[in-house]
Amino acid sequence: MDYFEETKKVSGQHPKPVGLVLEYGTAGFRAKAEQLDHVMYRMGLLAVLRSKKTACTIGVMVTASHNPEEDNGVKLVDPHGEMLASDWETYATHLANAEEQNLKSVLTNIVEKESVNLQEVARIFLGRDTRPSSQKLSQAVVDGVCDLGGAFQDYGLLSTPQLHYMVCCWNTMEQYGIATVEGYYQKLASAFIALTNQIPSHPEEMRQLYVDGANGIGALKLKEMEPYLEKKLKLNLCNNGTTGKLNYLCGADFVKVHQKPPQGLDMKANERCCSFDGDGDRIVYYYFDQSGCFHLLDGDKIATLMTTFLKELLAKADLDLQIAVVQTAYANGSSTRYIEDIMKVPVHCVNTGVKFLHHKAQEFDIGVYFEANGHGTVLFSKAAESKIRQMAQDESQKGEKSSAAKVLEHTIDLINQTVGDAISDLLTIEAILFIKGLTIQQWDLIYTDLPNRQLKVKVSDRHVIVTEDAGRRAVSPAGLQENIDTLLKKYRLSRAFVRPSGTEDVVRVYAEADTQISADTLAYEVSLVVYNMAGGVGEQPKLLH
Ligand code: G16
Fold this sequence. Notes:
Mean pLDDT: 95
Largest sheet: 5 strands, mixed
Bound molecules: 1,6-di-O-phosphono-alpha-D-glucopyranose
Radius of gyration: 23 Å
Number of helices: 19
Helix content: 40-55%
């Protein structure tokens, strides 16, 4: 029997636009929604092969996260809830770009190279975000799955981290948690309640949190979860998707990049606010001070808060576990210096993309990883987790040691270890602030960010820019890095880099320096160099102040 017979018949119903070339980038495929039907169908096919290869359930998430509402995207989730293995990203790109007549040979090639046992049963979990295009695109994935005889469970609307959680739960025989949305809420809520019960009462203002849901799935899911939290938190949710447009002038990416509050949030001085992104895997916090100055607490500040908390607990519990922080080039220089020099915790810098951070964080007993954009989580090694659980359950342990171990155990249960998760991160941050009795202002004072600016430059082919050293140095086009180095000499405490985005058709520019004016000017000058040396298109970059 020709295993790919059905594919030959059906793939024509999901035609590839002529000449379209896409890449499985930082977080899967991202493009205008109308270009993606064939990619979705083909990712359904690939997910079946991946499931047969691993003999596990594989996830497929339809989302373009922080991108504009008109875009969409898809990514595959591996058995333990982690990102797809990198060899398979290459297969995904080949498959998405194959011409119709070559589809069968590309699939056969994957089967042969990976020795996929076609007799193995395949099971796929599906989730999608709230974009208007997501339901139809999700159906194209289902078509692909069914053509290769895979079984599937469609969870419908889910945040990205919820899908990662479901896949992990199912493949660990539900040791990680119950593979339902309710199971997710119950697991996180009971850990949160147990943690906050450490402190008998909280002033009313400590319970108040303003949340910008980016008009996306995160808002919907947080609302669903609220009743499980037993009024421990008073959530004021705006941009909840009922009227506004997804990610438009709101959401974590908007707030981080523009360093200003989202539209739709009526903020008063010193109120604690946070923003999710479009698929609920990123979070940033912020507030206005009395003088009207905006303060952003991004992924770096979150990593610092969580690391401080965990390190103090390890000391109290007298547990000798190695803790490390993983960041990317976007991490503010002040955060890296603070974590390394003051906290004495090692910091590692890797390429942009959660998959790289996650991988590195797995090397430590406790690996805290966060991108500055608010995407991150904490990983506990199996050995570390079992040491902590043993101590927490050991009735012979008394006093501070025992209670620290118990707090650590609840923290493990509250954190979504499969991937960065805005809801889980929110609850973890809130629990830490409760327990430590910290206001957002006190948390903010841990260190002061260096002023920084991020810009985007449109070029005709962003892949002409090639980088090394975790994206911190450009090796191509020739002379680009030398020009950036010359600009850096003009400013104090300066750092800048450029890299092609893996989710948008732009080159990203990052600059930091001793003052906001210097950071803005440096970012502008570097953008001009990119525009001139890397084939800039459209309007020239402008100086923003
Ligand atoms: C995705 C990735 C993140 C990455 C971001 C931007 O976020 O998951 O790791 O930092 O894209 O990547 P790039 O600079 O390559 O465009 P999200 O929230 O959009 O899934």
